[in-house]
């Protein structure tokens, strides 16, 4: 097996190493990003839902930037929400700040019962720009 080409955002490598997973892996011209939550620097959840969603997008953006990407390079999105019936509208108010203009990436939304104290998680697959495809 070839060694994984891991992408770490600035300042959060210890958090990922402590939790034993990679924030993102470059492979075959794509960037596969692990689910990002609205965690503070210490890894704890941001308690306000709207702020938590915004922070999840900021954490995602940091990883995309570390790989030479932007949200415009994202081709597929999966979001997970605890109790989506009551959280969807609040969470989705934040999306236009980061989503960009059409055509938008594909989207799968999944309602879950538990996200380790978080209410929202987003994972993506992005097409690496030719210069970042490594």
TrEMBL record:
An example molecular function term from Gene Ontology annotations: deaminase activity
Organism domain of life: Bacteria
Entry GO terms, CC: cytosol
Gene3D superfamilies named among the record's database cross-references: RutC-like
InterPro entries linked: RutC-like_sf, YjgF/YER057c/UK114, YjgH-like
SUPFAM superfamilies in the cross-refs: YjgF-like
Protein known as: Enamine deaminase RidA (YjgF/YER057c/UK114 family)
Natural source organism: Chromohalobacter marismortui
